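pinned: reference chain
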Amino acid sequence: MYTQLLHYICNWFNQSHVPYMVTGSVALNTYALPRSTFDIDIVIEVPLSKIDAFLQLFQKGFYINEEIAKSELLHKGIGMFNIIDHQSGYKVDFIIKQHSLYEIVKFNNRKTVIFEQVPISVCSPEDLVISKLQWIQELQSERQMNDIKALLQYPNLNKYYILQWIQELQLQTFGLI
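pinned: its C-alpha cells
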C-alpha cells in the first residue's frame, strides 16, 4: 500500500511549509469508494530555497533522475517528473503547479483531510470532477467516467461551482452532469 510513502512525502511538505496538493486516485479515495492505484499524483510548488532539501528526501531508497527533477522544479521542462520507491515499487508523479486561472483557483481550493492519522492536502471533490472532465475531453476512459459518477455522489458537492468551470473551460460533459 502507498500509505507509508504518502506519509513520508506529505510530512516533509507539512513540516517545511511547502504548498502541495494530492490529486488523482489517492485524492479520489478520500471522497469516494476506494479503487486501486498504481501511483501517487502530487501538484507541488517548491520554492527555490527548498529545492535541494526536497531532492534530499529521495537520495536513498528511490529512483530519481535528479537532473530532470531539478530542471522541472526550476520551470524549465514539461512541468512534471517522477520518483519510484524501491521498497514498494510505487511511482510518485510530481506535477509543477501551473499558473492558469483555473489551476490557481484549484490549488487554492485544496482541502486538508486526515489520512490514516496524517494531515494531507488534497484536491477538492469539485475540482477532481473538473480535472477528470478535462482528462476525458480527448480520450473517454471508462475508469475516469466511473470516477466522475462516484464523485458526483459526494454529499454537499458544490455543483454550481462545477457548472461554472465547465462553462468557463468549455468542457463536454458526455451526459455525466
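why pinned: Residues 38 and 175 are 28 Å apart (CA to CA). DSSP finds eight helices and seven strands in the chain.
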